[in-house]
Amino acid sequence: MTDRAPAALAAGMRRPGQGRGMVDVLNHGYLLKLLVRKELRVRYQASFLGLAWSYVKPGVQFVVFYFVMGNFLELARTIPPFAVYLFSGIVVINLYSEILGNATRAVIQNGALVNKIYLPRQLFPASSVLVALVHFVPQLIVLMVGAGVVGWRPGPWEVAAALLGSAIVLTLALGLGLIFGAINVAYRDVENIVDLILMVAVWFSPVLYPLDRVRVVFGADSLIMTIYEANPLTIAVELFHRAFWWPVTTPELQTSALVDDVMVRGVLALGFSVVLLVIGDLVFKRLSRNFAQEL
User: Fold this and answer.
1) Contact present, 184 and 108 (Cβ < 8 Å)
2) Where is the ABC transmembrane type-2 domain (predicted)?
3) Rg (CA), the chain
């Protein structure tokens, strides 16, 4: 038996339990589809509205933020049309939050499967991405319709900005989700840490306020401002502003310095996010060896 094992491995077979990370996800599309269906079915079981919550939750979020920031702080006057500006950022933050939050808990929530059978563990956080996309598409449609009402007409640069911003969020959130999800199996405090990160994420990116105000407060050349603008989530939000809000703003706002270089910084942010995804995959693959014992 032992003599046959080296020959089998030489023929291209791999030892059980040894995976190739995220590459294995691409080879298990059917299992991934089943996990997505299970997640959606469990989430909306005995729910009257079902997937309609994809519209209700961001809608309530938008109304509250618009009422507070748009009316009390009068941002609706200084950032026209503020509704498009605000909802562009909300769509990005919601996508990021859902992927990272669900990916962090994915292995724990599928502990029964981990203990019973072997399958690529990366399927669990990867399924979180697809579930989040199911909720993201309706919000994106609402954003496109709303922007179209006020005169938005997409061109090649607008489409490129939206795709680039989406790619940054997907790779960044999945990379972090792989890292936090793997560590969370051994240390459940990670869930609370991620919840704190998601709670403040909306305030540490230009969703509710213009980027120019941050420059005024901290200084355009300050270290804090450099770190703030280097945040891939900040760049992703501004790419969505570039795609949906900028084409319908006043000419004065169209000359913003951020508009001139946001696409370049977006490419750099995507590169960083891809590197983080590779690192996250390596960390997850290494720690996944002990998942069955720790669950």
Assistant:
1) yes
2) 49-287
3) 21
